[in-house]
Amino acid sequence: MAHLLVFLGSARDSTPPTPARLGLRVARACVELLEASGASAKLIDPLDVDLGAIFKPHFAYAKSQVPEPLVALAAKIEAADGYVMVSPEYNHSMSPALAHLLNHFGSSHYAFKPSAIVTYSAGQWGGARAAVGMRTFLSELGCLPVSAMIHVPKAQEVLEEDGRFVSDAECWGDYFGRTLSQLLWWADACTRHRQTQDPHRLSPAFCQAPSQRNAP
To answer: pTM score, two decimals?
Structure first.
């Protein structure tokens, strides 16, 4: 059984916009649909993670001094078989809250696993333009996004607060399902292959200096 993390890319809990925390509905729908497919899914909400007032990534601390919230989330990221990234659109780009959260951990935590891109909006475009940059961002983290994506325009009319579809549940379920099924297929394939060949031995993480990326 695959285990997925669903990252919510919104840290706002106020109005406007109305309704507040629109993305939470989208993330909850993803969790429900993944679990209905037989997978295990856990929602990661930025409001539930104490990242501290000043940005300092997990790998920048001495081992004995890493804050417990970062230790706990790092373990969840490493244990997951894949990820769903749920983001609104800010200036045609992905959510700053999502990037801030993910950037606390080195790419080796996410690497050699798949991800799925899910965007939403209160308007007509569904955050689709944010997805363009998300492909590059997630590829750099090493969790390559599957080809199918989910875009939810007017999400407040599509989803109830608990993540259930307001209407046309079968059609929306099929639409979400195309992307989530790709994610689960790749998650299963990658998990099986990691059991026979350790990818981190073939392509070790950069742990010492940026110069490790340089050509000779």
So the answer is: 0.93
